[in-house]
Inverse folding.
């Protein structure tokens, strides 16, 4: 199964150098020292992150916080003397933000619950009190069971579940062994059944919201997917005209389970929900922020680094992704302060709408790089995400050839330990060379693995050489990601300085390389489904 | 240094049997099977724990919740046909409970903070708004720096600190290696300097409350000692006449640190505190709950098991200590259901006031077992705890000789892995024998180590053979202990059934043993300070 890629990798490894060796030039070696000096001794990366998190706070796409961040990041790029600073719009929907909220159990005894309004659900009109009903629903087939039983109720729509037994440390750095495991090629898994299932799940939030409203429920509540009182509050019904009729809250797992148990042993508890949230419909467009360090090459060739600036609302969007945004901005500051005059333009992008469906980076692809056929109907946010790369053929735009490399940062504030070659075997030896100076800083590993779920994904899907760095996980996945503890004090300053330095160096190498990074063919419709698989009889298609 | 105890242990080990070997009697072997049957197939331990936690909820000493628990546990003992069911009072102070609370940052941007009123601080009069000042104070010498600067302010009295990097799993069971490390004798460390320092720290809460009131501050806030949004809300000024003048709240570490950083880079944030708490002064006495299975021996000899029923208010007091209380009650139910007629009476005790200073178990000692000279002044709660065992001579009461053994449970819901011999080398071989049937259930280890901090401590200090079991830690210390996630769903049902079974078996063994458990001499004033130590010049005495 792995013969093809290994052979290909071996072939490519034998053909080095595919590009010039920038680190062999004395100038480039000196440039690494200047980057390290600027990024260490005059670092601004934590000041940038602190402003985005503490001062501006959560940056939900199109919210007042995100608007402030869009303005402030452009100001900083101007202050740092970047060029071509502008924003690029795309259709998104409503702004939404939380002013104040409270969820209490009032009977059988008073408890202040830990809860958060679900994004893009409406406010309560003052405090709303009603008994709960525990009515777990995770697909439309479950509706029938609860029809006629929900009127006047606050509906608890999640299964109560059980407490977790976290057997791994919440905070981790990658061992050499763990890094090694990432260097493993996997053939693509193109499974129409899985896709159909994901698409159905992605539609369910809207279908559930409609069902609850039709049944006359007064509000709904979900259980946090993590315990330990962590909250997230994700919601995806952000488009104008799609706002759910009912207020929704996510309740901490411990509190949710207590409600469910109390409903089993006695009268249904009564909740009081006071959700003072606000919509902002002043501008339905989301905006990406762009800034350049112009290149000398007249061809229009450029390299780019990006991170999404938008966040969820539970925390301050620190690890996800003020960290990446601040490192992108710091790389821009470092290179601008050095006065570099690269061959190719170096572009810095701060994306919006990433959390809902990579809207911002999809918009960039569609505006600058390539198009796919339009979908046959309007897709919900999650449907857009799961299906975007399944429409063929790809039609490249003139700008497609100009983007020589894209580097993404969206894995928290952990230090860079290496880079994912993203199934591009041809870049492995080049990246090894580019990482050479940073081994003593902990970054030395180039692995073949492909990563998804953030803004390089759909650039890659149209054939752009687009990469993500390997970062130490810290406590990102275990407790910080999307939760209310995604705050500045979970960011690691030394790690972020290192990340910005390495990113700046990669960008300069990519911009000045004699030949652009090797890229694969523009993808065509794959045909890798197992032709001998029988349909799963339990699969509801 | 360890010659004496090892020699002593060897000597004692060579003199077995110190008591009869109950497990050698066929009757006793059969009794183990009956205990396991009753405690497994008709277990009520989780129903008991669920009522104490979900239904009754937090049980702060003298709060309405604790009053309900005092009544309900006596009802259950009556239902299970125990004898001599009664409560025993002791002086404690005020009841206090939380109806509703909210802490928000209102400027420079709105955030609903995670916070909890500090126990026994007064309510706000509606919502109180004021700017913060970060004024860390941890000893009276710090007051001078802030004098004249606190009027009209909400004073943040803790150091902001830094985020944690939890490098151990939150949920753990003890390995054989870890169990082995517990079997290590330590000579007592009687250090007057340390004691003086602890006593000063114990007084500081009251001194700080007085200082803040004199300075005209409007409220104060502390930082949670754990991050990850965990809260505790401990406070110790529970006595009538000692209530602080100002409302106090504990703020989640992430939120506290954000406030402190914002105050450094801009105008002091404004907080809005709405603390709807209530005092209950209907009865200043705390109460221990007592229930017996009467023994046939006319001497008045008894064995006892106890756990504290009181809790803090952030969670539902599940692991601390509905778990222990439910296992004590379940052992009573099992033995009563079996209709045992023990030689010595078996007594079950549910203590109150443990969380503030082991008030309930101290009261039991003073009422039934032994007295110490009165302190020379009225002591704060923490001072009482640190100094109680330092007053000599001990005067034993007639009941002292009757209490043949005490077993305590207060380490969460983790299964019993063995027992601490608490520096009583003579019981080691006896406990090994008593644990024999339970090796396959995971409980086999007898370790010499002495433990403190809960209700066996001061019985032990007057010469009673008083013990605690070794339990798997689970996530008790890492995140549950005293926090708002100390709820029912962090309890482990299988573990608690095992614990109740082993406790019941130990109690029956202790009650029926031909001779009582070996006990040491009644302690006299120790003199083990290093006579050659120079005073630490930095120590502020």
């Amino acid at each position: 199964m792995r013969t093809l890629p290994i052979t290909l990798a071996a072939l490519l490894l034998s053909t080095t150098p595919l590009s010039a060796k920038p680190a062999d030039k004395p100038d480039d070696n000196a440039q690494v020292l200047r980057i390290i000096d600027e990024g260490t001794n005059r670092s601004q990366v934590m000041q940038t992150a602190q402003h985005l998190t503490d001062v501006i706070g959560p940056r939900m796409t199109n919210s007042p916080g995100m608007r402030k961040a869009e303005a402030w990041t452009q100001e900083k790029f101007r202050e740092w003397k970047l060029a071509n600073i502008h924003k690029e719009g795309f259709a998104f929907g409503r702004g939404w933000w939380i002013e104040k909220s409270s969820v209490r159990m009032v009977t059988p005894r008073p408890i202040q619950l830990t809860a958060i309004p679900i994004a893009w659900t409406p406010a309560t009109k003052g405090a709303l009190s009603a008994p709960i009903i525990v009515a777990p629903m995770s697909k439309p087939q479950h509706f029938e069971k609860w029809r006629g039983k929900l009127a006047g109720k606050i509906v608890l729509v999640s299964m109560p579940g059980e407490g977790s037994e976290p057997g791994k440390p919440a905070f981790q750095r990658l061992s050499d062994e763990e890094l090694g495991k990432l260097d493993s090629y996997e053939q693509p898994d193109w499974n129409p059944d899985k896709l159909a299932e994901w698409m159905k799940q992605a539609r369910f939030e809207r279908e559930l919201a409609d069902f609850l409203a039709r049944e006359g429920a007064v509000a709904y509540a979900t259980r946090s997917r993590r315990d330990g009182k962590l909250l997230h509050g994700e919601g995806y019904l952000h488009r104008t005209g799609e706002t759910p009729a009912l207020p929704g809250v996510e309740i901490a797992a411990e509190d949710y389970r207590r409600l469910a148990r109390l409903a089993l042993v006695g009268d249904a508890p009564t909740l009081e929900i006071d959700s003072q949230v606000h919509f902002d419909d002043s501008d339905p467009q989301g905006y990406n922020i762009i800034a350049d360090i112009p290149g000398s090459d007249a061809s229009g060739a450029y390299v780019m680094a990006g991170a999404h600036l938008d966040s969820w609302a539970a925390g301050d969007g620190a690890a996800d992704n003020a960290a990446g945004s601040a490192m992108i901005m710091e790389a821009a500051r470092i290179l601008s302060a050095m006065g570099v005059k690269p061959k190719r333009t170096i572009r810095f992008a701060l994306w919006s709408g990433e959390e809902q469906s990579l809207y911002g980076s999809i918009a960039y692809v569609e505006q600058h790089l390539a198009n796919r056929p339009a979908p046959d109907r309007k897709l919900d946010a999650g449907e857009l995400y799961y299906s975007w790369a399944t429409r063929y053929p790809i039609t490249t735009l003139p700008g497609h050839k100009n983007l020589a490399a894209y580097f993404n940062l969206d894995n928290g504030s952990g230090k860079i330990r290496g880079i994912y070659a993203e199934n591009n075997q041809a870049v492995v030896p080049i990246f090894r060379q580019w990482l050479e100076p940073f081994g003593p800083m902990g970054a030395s590993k180039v692995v073949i693995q492909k990563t998804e779920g953030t803004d390089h994904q759909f650039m890659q899907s149209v054939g752009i050489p687009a990469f993500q760095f390997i970062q130490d996980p810290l406590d990102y996945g275990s407790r910080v990601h999307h939760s209310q503890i995604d705050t500045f004090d979970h960011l690691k300053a030394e790690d972020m300085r290192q990340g910005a330095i390495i990113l700046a160096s990669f960008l300069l190498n990519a911009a000045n390389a004699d030949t652009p990074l090797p890229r694969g063919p523009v993808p065509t419709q794959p045909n890798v489904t197992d032709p001998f698989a029988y349909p799963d009889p339990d699969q509801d298609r």
